[in-house]
Structure formats: structure tokens, C-alpha cells
Specification:
This protein has helices at 44-62, 100-108, 117-128, 198-209, 218-221, 226-238, 242-266, 283-297, 325-338, and strands at 7-13, 17-24, 34-37, 69-76, 80-81, 84-85, 112-116, 136-141, 145-151, 155-156, 270-273, 315-318. The protein has 339 residues and is α/β, with parallel strands linked by helices. Helix 4 (198-209) packs antiparallel against helix 7.
Length: 339
């Protein structure tokens, strides 16, 4: 049984790195964030060896014995149910169908809770808002579009099979210039992720640069792949470049429009926008574009209370956890479950 000297580890497995943090029984962070290579494509055993390193470094940084770690929260970049990976994503082949949670628990000798990275980041954003007691919806544009939902009190909602909140794959009524629905990486067409993600930015940028009005644009003079040009788009938007602003404005509007439907389903009260855009200098403009899309689709009751018009019923905030959010979420969850 855990004691007042126990610690709880949060391990966030990414495609490239494992980020790890500790919290103690008082929910105070113990020591600095630790980061090691993940080696996920080399198989789960190779990654487990990296998790051992991360746990050793956490214990050393907090100046505690490793045996003081009484529970682990683990998140993985793939769909899973009850500790078992269901889909390969960017993982090595041997992850699929394996009871990762059970194997890690047996290896470390402590209980383990496991979820996906979107749920973990949402839990981290909730944990970092000590005064927030309601629910929280996280929507995080990145290479794809992830999300998570936390119930009042801090419990994550994962669905019956751990597959809930695939927010990037809800259908949206927006079409390309040729009136066709854009293809999504999941194999479907018309998904939100096909409009709001780095992959979507690449597609939109390529389409726009092929138009006559952007023939003289600096990105058309660069002899580099569109993938590299897309990485520069944020820098252009920060300088007020018309093409970059146009693309991000469309993205923000469509994201806000879609969030209105999510809010109609979950009524979270608080919507947190994560991903790299939280760190841009034009993020307030981007939030305005999200709000414009939300206002276009949301019922008035989801914007302001009909009883008290001064009360905003759906608040929007930027994520505050950065790259550490998922690891923090899993550490706090382990504390809640195993203390």
C-alpha cells in the first residue's frame, strides 16, 4: 500500500522520445522533467528498457529510491483498450495485441494505468488547473488532430473500448475548390483532421501555391518540397503574410465550427486548444478565428447563459502544459488511482 513517502510516475511514450515526470502524494512535482529516446519502432521490449532509464533518472532527480515509486501512468501514441494496443500507428509490429500495461506492471512490480496520448494530455491540462472543478475538452492540432475529455473531478472519459474522442475524424461540411471532400489519412473523406493538421496545411499550401495569385509568393520561389514549405508557414503567418494568414484563418474557423458540435454533445464548459499553435505569436488571432467558427455553428445557449447574459457558458483557453502535459496527466492519474 502506498505511503506518504510514495511517488507516482507519468510516462509519455512518443514516436521519438519518452517524457517522464514524478508527483508525490501531495500532488507536488518531484524533480525535473526527464526525456529519453523511445525506440518504439524497435519493439516494446526496446522501449521498456528506455522506460527503465527514465524511471532511474526520475528517482535520481528527486533524490529518492526507485522503490518509492508506487504507481505508473503510461500513455501510448496508438489506440488501446484495457492495456492492450489495438492499432500499430507508428509503433513496431509487436506492440499490437500485446498487454503492454500488464507486462510493464510485471516488469516494475507496481500497478500501471494506460491510455492514449490525447487522453493523457487532456488529463494533464486538467491537473494543471487546480481551481477548475468542471469538465474539460482538449482539442490539439498537430501532425494530426487529437483530443480528450475529462469529467468533473478529473476522471478521463475513454469510452467502452478506449476509443472515444477521436475528434479528428468527425465529419465536417467543407469542400475543396473542386467541390470534393478532402481525403483523410484514416482512409475516409471529409474528416476534420483533413482540414486542421500539419498534413492538411501541406495540402492547402500546395493547392494555393498552384494558383495565379500566389505565383510571386516567396514560397513559390523556394526549390524545396511542400512538406518543408508547410513548416515555414507559421513563420510567415507571424509576419502577417496574406497567404499564410488566409490558410490559418480557414483552419481556425473550421476548427471552431466543429468544436460547436463537440460542445453540443459534451457541454464541457471549458475547451482547451493544444498543439504547437499555443506557442505562436499570432495565437490570439487564431483563437479569434476559432471563436468565429464556433459562433457560426453553436446555439446561443452554448455561448452565453439565457438566465444571466453576462455568464459565458463555454470558455476557451490555450493549453498550458506544453510538451509535458501528457506525462503530467499520467502522473496525476497514477496518484489518484494508486494512492
Amino acid at each position: 500500500m502506498a505511503s506518504d513517502t510514495s511517488y507516482y510516475a507519468g510516462l509519455d511514450i512518443g514516436g521519438t522520445t519518452v517524457k517522464a515526470v514524478l508527483v508525490n502524494h501531495l500532488a507536488e512535482q518531484g524533480g525535473p522533467l526527464t526525456e529519453v529516446r523511445s525506440l518504439v519502432k524497435d519493439g516494446y521490449e526496446a522501449t521498456f528498457a528506455q522506460l527503465d532509464k527514465a524511471l532511474d533518472q526520475l528517482a535520481s532527480g528527486a533524490e529518492i529510491e526507485k522503490s518509492a515509486i508506487a504507481g505508473i501512468g503510461l500513455d501510448v501514441p496508438a489506440p488501446s483498450s484495457d492495456g492492450v494496443i489495438w492499432g500499430r500507428a507508428n509503433l513496431g509490429e509487436d506492440w499490437v495485441g500485446t498487454d503492454i500495461r500488464g507486462k510493464l506492471s510485471a516488469r516494475t512490480g507496481v500497478p500501471v494505468h494506460m491510455t492514449n496520448d490525447g487522453n493523457a494530455a487532456a488529463l494533464g491540462e486538467y491537473a494543471l488547473r487546480r481551481k477548475h472543478v468542471g469538465s474539460l475538452l482538449l482539442v490539439a492540432p498537430g501532425t494530426g488532430l487529437g483530443g480528450g475529455f475529462v469529467l468533473p473531478g478529473g476522471r478521463g472519459y475513454e469510452g467502452a473500448n478506449g476509443m472515444a474522442l477521436e475528434v479528428g475524424h468527425i465529419s465536417v461540411p467543407f469542400r475543396e475548390d473542386d467541390e470534393k471532400l478532402p481525403k483523410c489519412s484514416c482512409g475516409l473523406t471529409g474528416c476534420l483532421e483533413a482540414w486542421v493538421s500539419l498534413v492538411a496545411l501541406r495540402r492547402r499550401l500546395g493547392l494555393e501555391l498552384s494558383k495565379m495569385e500566389w505565383t510571386e509568393h516567396p514560397l513559390n520561389s523556394d526549390e524545396i518540397p511542400v512538406e518543408e514549405k508547410a513548416f515555414k508557414l507559421r513563420e510567415f503567418a507571424e509576419k502577417g503574410d496574406p497567404l499564410a494568414v488566409q490558410i490559418f484563418k480557414q483552419q481556425g474557423f473550421i476548427l471552431g465550427y466543429s468544436i460547436a458540435d463537440m460542445v453540443r454533445s459534451f457541454d464541457p464548459g471549458l475547451v482547451v486548444i493544444g498543439g504547437g499553435l499555443a506557442e505562436t505569436t499570432f495565437r490570439e488571432k487564431y483563437m479569434e478565428w476559432i471563436q468565429e467558427g464556433f459562433a457560426d455553428r453553436a446555439w446561443p445557449v452554448y455561448r452565453r447563459s439565457p438566465i444571466d447574459p453576462e455568464k459565458i457558458t463555454t470558455q476557451f483557453e490555450w493549453a498550458i502544459g506544453g510538451d509535458a502535459a501528457a506525462a503530467i496527466g499520467m502522473a496525476y492519474t497514477a496518484r489518484e488511482l494508486f494512492q
